C-alpha cells in the first residue's frame, strides 16, 4: 500500500512552545534523480559529523547504486527516505529501514542528519516530526528505533524532545580515532 508521499512545509514547535516557521524548508520524499546530489550531501555529513560510525573515507556508494537505493525505498512501503530541501539544496535527511520478516516488521529503524551549517535551526525537529507522522499513519509500523552514540548530546536532546526512551546500551562499542571509547544507546518510540 502506498502512503502519503507528498509532504508539505511545516511549523516546528520548540520545547518551549515557540513556533519556528520553516517556510522555505520543505520535507520531500527522495527521488532517484536526486542520487548524485544526495551522495554529495551524505559525503559532507560523514566529513563534518563526529558521532557517526562511517568515516568519510569509507563512504563508497556511487550515484548508480544510490539511485537504485532510492528507487527501492520508493517501492518498499515499510521504508522511506525524507529530505529537507531549501532552495533546491538538500539540508537534512532521514531514512528508515525495516526487517521484512513478519515477526519484526512492526518495528522500523532510522538514521538522520542535518547539513553542518543548518544545525540548531529546527530542521532536525521538522524532519523527525514528519517522519513520526508518517509512521503513525502507517498500517503496519508501530515502533521506531534508533542507535545513538552516548556522547552525541545534541542528537539525544532531539530524540528525548520527541519522547524516545533509552531501551538498552551497548557498552564501549565505538572507538574513535583519538582513542575515546563510547557507548551506543538503542532508543525507541511507540508513536
Ligand atoms: C543530530 C542532528 C540531526 C540534529 O539536527 P538539528 O537540525 O540541529 O536539530 P534541531 O535544531 O531541531 O535541535 C534539536 C535540539 O537539540 C538541542 N541542541 C543543540 N545543540 C545541542 C548540544 N550541543 N547539546 C544538547 N542539545 C543541543 C537544540 O536546542 C534543540 O532542542 P530544543 O528544541 O529543545 O531547543 C544534527 O545535529 C546532525 O546532523 N548531527 C550530525 C549527524 C548526527 O549526529 N546524526 C544523528 C546520529 S544518531
Strand order of the largest sheet: 3-4-5-6-7-9-8
CATH superfamily: Gcn5-related N-acetyltransferase (GNAT)
Helix content: 25-40%
The assigned structural class equals alpha+beta
Oligomeric description of these chains: single chain
Domain module count = 1
Reading the helices and strands in chain order gives EEEHHEEEHEHEE
Strand content: 25-35%
Shape: globular
CATH class annotation: Alpha Beta
Supply the CATH architecture.
3-Layer(aba) Sandwich
Give the gist of this structure.
26% of the residues lie in helices and 33% in strands.
SSE arrangement:
Blueprint: E1 11-13, E2 19-21, E3 25-29, H1 35-48, H2 63-75, E4 80-86, E5 89-98, E6 107-114, H3 123-136, E7 143-149, H4 153-161, E8 165-175, E9 181-189
Parallel strand pairs: 6-7
Antiparallel strand pairs: 1-2, 3-4, 4-5, 5-6, 7-9, 8-9
Helix pairs in contact: 1-2
GO molecular function, one term: acyltransferase activity
Organism: Kordiimonas pumila
Protein name: GNAT family N-acetyltransferase
Amino acid at each position: 500500500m502506498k502512503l502519503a508521499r507528498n509532504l508539505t512545509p511545516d511549523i516546528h514547535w520548540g520545547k518551549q512552545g515557540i513556533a519556528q516557521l520553516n517556510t522555505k524548508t520543505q520535507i520531500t520524499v527522495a527521488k532517484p534523480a536526486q542520487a548524485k546530489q544526495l551522495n554529495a550531501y551524505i559525503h559532507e555529513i560523514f566529513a563534518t559529523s563526529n558521532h557517526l560510525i562511517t568515516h568519510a573515507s569509507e563512504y563508497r556508494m556511487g550515484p548508480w547504486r544510490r539511485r537504485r537505493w532510492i528507487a527501492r525505498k520508493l517501492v518498499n512501503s515499510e521504508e522511506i527516505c525524507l529530505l529537507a530541501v531549501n532552495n533546491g539544496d538538500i539540508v537534512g535527511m532521514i531514512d528508515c529501514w525495516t526487517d521484512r520478516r513478519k515477526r519484526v516488521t512492526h518495528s522500523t529503524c532510522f538514521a538522520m542528519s542535518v547539513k553542518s551549517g543548518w544545525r540548531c535551526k529546527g530542521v532536525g525537529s521538522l524532519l523527525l516530526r514528519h517522519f513520526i507522522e508518517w509512521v503513525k499513519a502507517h498500517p503496519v509500523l508501530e515502533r521506531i528505533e534508533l542507535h545513538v552514540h552516548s556522547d552525541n548530546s545534541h542528537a539525544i536532546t532531539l530524540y528525548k524532545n520527541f519522547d524516545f526512551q533509552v531501551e538498552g546500551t551497548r557498552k564501549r562499542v565505538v572507538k574513535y580515532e583519538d582513542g575515546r571509547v563510547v557507548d551506543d544507546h538503542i532508543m525507541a518510540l511507540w508513536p
